[in-house]
Amino acid sequence: MAGGDLSLELDLHLLECPICLERLQQPKSLPCLHCFCQDCLGIYITKELSGKMASATSFPCPICRRMTSPMYQAETKDKWAEQFPTNNAIQDLIQLRELSSEPLYCKPCQTKGYLNNPAKFWCKSMNLNFCEACREQHHDILHSDCGIVDININDITRFKPKKSAPRCDRHDKKIVWYCEDHQLLGCNVCIFKDHRRCEEVSTVTE
Q1: Distance of alpha carbon 44 from its chain centroid, rounded?
Q2: Distance in Å from the first CA to the final CA of the chain
Q3: What percent helix, strand, coil does the chain show, rounded to 5?
Q4: Which residues are in the RING-type domain (predicted)?
Q5: How far, in whole angstroms, is CA 175 from its chain's centroid?
Q6: How far apart (Å, rounded) are the C-alpha atoms in residues 69 and 84?
Q7: At what angle do helices 3-14 and 88-99 cross, to 10 degrees?
Q8: Can you tell me the distance from the alpha carbon of 145 to that of 128, in angstroms, rounded to the nearest whole number?
Q9: Which end of the chain is more exposed for a tag (fewer CB within 10 A), N or C?
Q10: Residue 61 — very low, low, confident or very high, per pLDDT cuts 50/70/90?
């Protein structure tokens, strides 16, 4: 595998929730640094600490099993996931990935008539793309501390839109499983939450 392909694969893995196996939404980081969708983590905590574990004040990370406690244990367990910090770095990278599947061009250059001058940087606060020259001449004068992102490192132009797949009505996740016991289609969250003890569960064929 070429180095660029390996980097792309690693980037995609970082943006994927280990529970639902889809693009992270409202990514929440645990102290062990593993990251999950806020909703997926909330469902996991509620399910993990049900029954005999209802009085527990901590839960194991779904990946490394490190015991983790929320800051405010008195809150109901379905609210625990909201207490963990949002991973802003991952969230920014996701936003970059979703910006466009086409090459990005420098906005100030376009206003001057140079329509196809490639952008090298993206300013989140302004939501504008800049080439290196325009970054120095325009952006840095006004937004020197905004944390502008080098889009060439993240290389968002390599991503192409994928054909949309059927989504689960309950969790808005891709449908990938069929439970023969209940004769129901479901996403990874459905199976994890409601069908873990079912005997006949298979992947959905294309």
Answers
A1: 17
A2: 27
A3: 35, 15, 45
A4: 17-65
A5: 18
A6: 10
A7: 120
A8: 15
A9: C
A10: very high
For the domain made up of 167-203, the CATH class stated in words is alpha beta
Distance CA 45, CA 47 (A): 5
- Is the domain defined by 102-150 classed in CATH 3.30.1150? no
Q: List the chain domain ranges.
A: 27-88, 102-150, 167-203
Structure tokens belonging to residue 169: 């009505």
| Per-residue confidence (pLDDT) for residue 41, from 0 to 100 | 93
Q: According to DSSP H, which parts of the chain are helical?
A: 3-14, 38-48, 80-83, 88-99, 107-111, 132-134, 140-142, 151-154, 188-194
Amino acid of residue 130? F
The predicted structure's pLDDT at residue 157: 38
Same fold for the pair 102-150 and 167-203: yes
